[in-house]
User: Fold these one by one.
Assistant:
Number 1:
Amino acid sequence: MERNTGLIIAMDVTRMDRAVKIASEVAECVDAIKVGYPLVLSEGLSVISRLADYAPVIADFKVADIPYTDELICEQVFKAGASGLIVHGFTGEDSLKACIGVARLYDGDIYVVSEMSHPGGAKYFQPIADEIASMAYEFGATGIVAPATRPERVKHLRSIIGDSLSIISPGVGAQGGKASDVIASGANWIIVGRSIYNSENPKETAMELVTGIGI
Ligand code: U5P
């Protein structure tokens, strides 16, 4: 993914027409559109190719299965036109390798969740976050997902993965994180959903966020 603005929109609306409208409004402010279960379960996998007309699409399916099933899932996602896919790492090395193997066939990106951004995300993730981040580095993932709600953790995880992997970071706005803090802590992109798509003027809000990122 090319880093022009540092902003990824999380498109967690449940209607295709609304998603397309917002995508067309914010396209020039975002480097990617993240879609997840809310939109895909509601409108089908074809949302990926539809939104890819506006910006590269990252599918946030937090893939977490046995290697064989992971491969089948990854194939569907990349075949549908996604440029990137978010997967879990706690399922182990073999599962992660399976996802990365399929992504390579499609020239796609794999981002591994290292620690989740919500309050409950710290308890079980923090004890294993370092190992997950190291594994992401070792097996050649594109990057990790780290919490904008805990910039100090982003800084710590950056020290583990070095500069070659990307950090994409959700939790700015509705979850309380601040764009400038998390970028200063080492994130390459912030992921923002509600603050943008629930805004009266999504484009203006996206532009303000881009200013806060300050690339
Ligand atoms: N997301 C998080 N935290 C994580 C991993 C993923 O918030 O640790 C996702 C959410 O599922 C949502 C987006 O799609 O990032 C954040 O949206 P919002 O809180 O800005 O509305």
Number 2:
Amino acid sequence: GLKIATIGGGSSYTPELIEGFINYHSELPVREIWLVDIEEGKEKLEIVGNLAKRMVQKAGVPIEIHLTLDRREALKSADFVTTQFRVGLLAARELDERIPLKHGVLGQETNGPGGLFKALRTIPVILEICREMEEFCPNAWLINFTNPAGMVTEAVLRYSNIDKVVGLCNVPIGMEMGVAKLLEVDHKRIRIDFAGLNHMVYGLDVFVDGVSVKDQVISLITDPDKSITMQNIHAIGWEPEFLRALDVFPCPYHNYYYKAGDMLEKELKNFKAGGTRAEIVKKLEAELFELYKNPNLAVKPPQLEKRGGAYYSDAAVRLIHSMYTDKQDIQTVNTMNKGAIASIPFDSAVEVSCIITKNGPKPIAMGDLPIQVRGLVIQMKSFERVAIDAAISGDYGTALLAMTINPLVPSDRIAKVILDEMLESHKKYLPQF
Ligand code: NAD
Ligand code: G6P
Ligand code: MN
Ligand code: MN
């Protein structure tokens, strides 16, 4: 049987993952799942871990659930290590979203100034985990869900000795599910050629049973009621002529770039009305943990679907299943580019359709991105690479450079104001600065 170690086990998403392992159990013989957390997450780990135990018991599958604060013990001889942790918890996310907003900039906790700081806090921790993996489970695969997933994956690829890493996001699977719903067909008949970066990915083509329906999908989603989005992004709707001319299927995060002013205005309104997404998530999380405490609950509650990470378990367990069985099906993950997308560095992480094998994802060559989207993707990759360099070096100028070249930040002066305030507020989690 397989041993899984899940870092950040106290996450409210854990029941998703457990449900996935239960559903796949006949083909994916998981024997042990070790949920790991830290002192601050102890109570969450206890509550969600006990629910996990009730879930496997009710399902009648022979999976042992272990709860621990000892990461090394959890990693020992693990076959797959999955990560879903948040350095600094939601309090840090609140700062990531609020500080930039005070200065008229969208924080955006994965792509904007917030994403930069989430990377600065997270990269040192993931590299520490990699060093422990070398010692305790050198053959394991690291499946990283921790955001910013693209930058975290690239940091592992370029700055650790762990090569067996895959970054995972639910946006591609969410877009496929969204198209299936829109066209009223089973999601298994939908395939999208994905290329780009995490939260900056495009569907270059969309197929039903191998026949392109891209134009039809693009026309349909110009209707705001039919736009495909995630729970954490309030889509406003696209200008139909713009989207048809763009000629590729954008992801929900593109709202922040192609509708920057509108999204900022909306966020400021939300903020005045009650707070940023972090505050909404705090309430959702409190509600979820109240439910999880109920000793009669032994399944994943539907309320979890209000979180942005819906379909996470499908994505994660489907990936592990295909790697374990050498299925060689196509899934979209974050992996080393290796030339699959021209004009992105060879050793950078990209989010791209891949063939999933026992030896990992093999990216499918997508060639050059269409000229109308190429520049933005390259710009974001420059931002990501500079941000990673800042996370490693702790160099102030490099961090200021990353903040300034982020497309959501209007000037070096505002970048510096935001940077200084964020460095101060997050000091506890930034030992490298
Ligand atoms: P959360 O705030 O509930 O944190 C999860 C757990 O991580 C907590 O129990 C916390 O105590 C623990 N933790 C913090 N620092 C840790 C450390 N150093 N080692 C081990 N555990 C630690 O977070 P969440 O909302 O459940 O999200 C978890 C992560 O997953 C975040 O990074 C989030 O951005 C990411 N996420 C990714 C996607 C995706 O598409 N890839 C989707 C949703 C969420
Ligand atoms: C989206 C993204 C995640 C993101 C999350 C936010 O689906 O893919 O990477 O972090 O949802 O969800 P939340 O409920 O925490 O706002
Ligand atoms: Mn390496
Ligand atoms: Mn994501």
Number 3:
Amino acid sequence: RPPGAVPEGLRRPPGPRGFPVLGNVLELRRDTHLALTRLGRRYGDVMEVRIGTRPVLVLSGLDTIRQALVRQGDDFMGRPDLYSFHYISNGQSLAFSPDSGEVWKARRKLAQSALKSFSIAPSPTSSCSCLLEEHVSKEAEYLVTKFLQLMEEEKRFDLNQYLVVSVANVICAMCFGKRYEHEDQELLSLVNLGNEFGEVAGSGHPADFIPVLRYLPSRTMELFKDINRRFNAFVQKIVQEHYSSFDKEHIRDITDSLIGHCQEKSAGEDTHVQLSNEKIIHIVNDLFGAGFDTVATALSWSLMYAALYPDVQKKIHEELDRTIGRERRPRLSDRGTLPYTEAFILEMFRHSSFLPFTIPHSTTKATVLNGFYIPKDTCVFINQWQVNHDETLWKEPSAFRPERFLSAAGTELSRPESEKVLAFGLGKRRCIGETIGRWEIFLFLTTLLQQLHFSLRPGEHVDITPQYGLTMKYKKCEAFQIRPRFPGGSSL
Ligand code: HEM
């Protein structure tokens, strides 16, 4: 059988025909998640589109995605070798580079353990339960003061700019042991990304699939390269500072722990795979990069939904008053006691589906899915947006209704319902920051909502249409109005 030929009895997945040379690129250019959801309805959960001349497998449907990423996890755990991914972390990214072998596995393990030690592991030195709680509480408290001050002094402002710096400060504290001022221009220019990064890194960017586009001038691509260059230089500088003040008896943060790992390794640690220092140190680029945009975008959607649905916000306020009261601040250990608030967070993930696709996957070997033949090295898009809006899974998927996750009495979260929401991927490539991300969102949100009330300036049009990209955001909005819930300040 010639390479690429379909074995007897099997078929290639169905899909739209598309144009010669361009394939389906014109149909997919805008709102790719909606276009692929529409096409999936016609062609099924295992569908093949073409971007340029390259075939791309698009998976929809929770069962099909579980089958591919979990039960056939080994076959689907690769990453495609895409042009734009070469610019992320100098091509050394844990999340975006094509490696999925032993080196990737060892790096992923190292990243998970470094992340855990400096976030959710019990802290011997802090009065909080863990460092994550300490950092988030501090930043959220700062945000409360800052928002009230801005309301007084500026009246109109973009709250997302402040959210993203606070969230970046949490991951900066864990990765680099450092905090930045909200006016710090160096950090601001890096974290206030808008859509420059996500527009290119999102699934289906044409230059990744149609080589000739790389030679045409593109402002989007230039901005993407520039942000990656500045990002890498920023991290590199901090890593150098850490090297010069490194003390193995006093590991301050994730960067130190990775440097320590490089030194142990050169001291002859007997490991299964030898990782280069570069591969070890670059892990911090991924953690920092993945750690702020995702969580900040989640909080930004949360506050928008709270403002858009005053009745929902009122229920969260009532739950917080009833369970936590005003005499103390929320803590991570309050998770599990605030079912409505947790249902609200799940509904935010589902309804916004702000990560419409996972990072693209690729097949590590020729395989068969739902009876369709899929060759090795096929690029695979996982449509999380489709699952979260699937009418066979959700009643009125376009309605924002946290109650859908609660038991009839409203006192308990329904586990089976929560597990249908796709936001962090599944299987071998599943997000390694899931616990941290969920805990951070919970603590930021409860701390903000315990003290503040959010609304939108009456009569002002607010456009919340998500802008397509790796993480989808709504357009810049200065219509938020924020007031303290307890005039005269809290008793703390
Ligand atoms: C991968 C979502 C927060 C680190 C991913 C993926 C998704 C995702 C969808 C791709 C999964 C796949 O390709 O199948 C989210 C969401 C977050 C969040 C929704 C917060 C609301 C974080 C945080 C960190 C992090 C806080 C680290 C501090 C990573 C890394 C990967 C990843 C390193 C790559 C894993 C790999 O390729 O092996 N995340 N993430 N994420 N995430 Fe997250």
Number 4:
Amino acid sequence: FGSSATLFLEASQQDVSQNKSSTEKSVAQTLQVQKTQSSKPKYQWKIVWRNMIAFAYLHLGALYGLYLLLVAASVYTTIWSITIGAFAAIGVTAGAHRLWAHRSYKAKWPMRIILMLLQTTAFQNHIYEWVRDHRVHHKFTDTDADPHNAKRGFFFSHMGWLLIRKHPDVINKGASIDMSDLEKDFVVVWQRRLYIVLMPVFCFLLPTWVPCHFWNEKPMYAWYATLFRYTLSLNLTWLVNSAAHIWGMKPYDNTISPTDSYSVGIGAFGEGWHNYHHVFPWDYKAGELGNYRTNFTTGFIDFFAWIGWAYDLKTVAHNMIKRRAARTGDGSIYERTDDHHD
Ligand code: ST9
Ligand code: ZN
Ligand code: ZN
């Protein structure tokens, strides 16, 4: 404000004393504004080498793990890896995402504890941090304040955002996000406090120990199988931020980057109906129809609703969806052929 006032005074004085033409004045003003702006600190990437090394190791280890699972390890180790990967995914989709980030249903404490342990197995940061980044992503989608802003390209929105320091806008604008609901949930609070112990145990140690103890798997094979399971589930999750913000249909809102993607939907346990999800984030199905084959997470929540542990499941009225699609969609809703859009 101070520099704008100085600018104004300087411009006025010049006007009186030198009687310059208005064109000259505006050139002087532009130069002055440019000077003021260039004195602001410019955002620069800051690589976090610890993460670079960790993710390089994870991906190389995962490739070796895949090789071992295919040619050397016990078939039980493969079945075990898939099972743990699936349970961990549910912790992210039904837990961190649909329950804690969006409050699209309510869950009794035993279900919340189960979901918390599954989410810990997925090691995608503790629930509080995961939810904070995700709420910021929804509120500031496709801007610098979006932690994995898809406008910065496939690699950044996929994995790159975890390799560099966050854009200052993420932290500044993220401060406006209300997290008080999570601060009151004892399951979230205690997971955050104990994360440094819980995460290594549930994501790495237990999944590696079980194959060695129960079917005499070689420890090295079990370790690389763990790296494969973890790295694959990370990449499937990241595809929601990258691929499902770049390629696919936009049946509900054509003006935003998120898309409905059948293949991401399957791989990410029903989280690929991302155009729908960004328009109606409170729907517990995170998709319009949520049939179980393409939306396994919905089946999981419905099961817990059936036994009474999940309740207050929120959905969206059919008419409201239809009206919104007609108003802002890309028209693809009228060409439904796949499972999701039957
Ligand atoms: C991972 C997460 O992979 C994946 C999330 C994916 C989300 C997908 C969404 C789609 C939904 C569906 C799911 C489908 C699932 C399918 C499964 C299929 C199998 N707001 O972060 P710091 C402040 S994680 C407000 O350190 P730096 C805050 O004060 C992988 N404030 O920033 C914070 O302090 P504190 C494993 C914010 O230093 C302070 O800033 N994990 C916000 O720039 C510093 O925060 C890793 O690899 C915000 N949003 O570092 C760890 N953010 O926390 C990677 C920050 O004390 N992370 N603040 O309150 C890191 O190393 C660092 O975070 C960093 C940035 C280097 C990336
Ligand atoms: Zn979401
Ligand atoms: Zn998104």
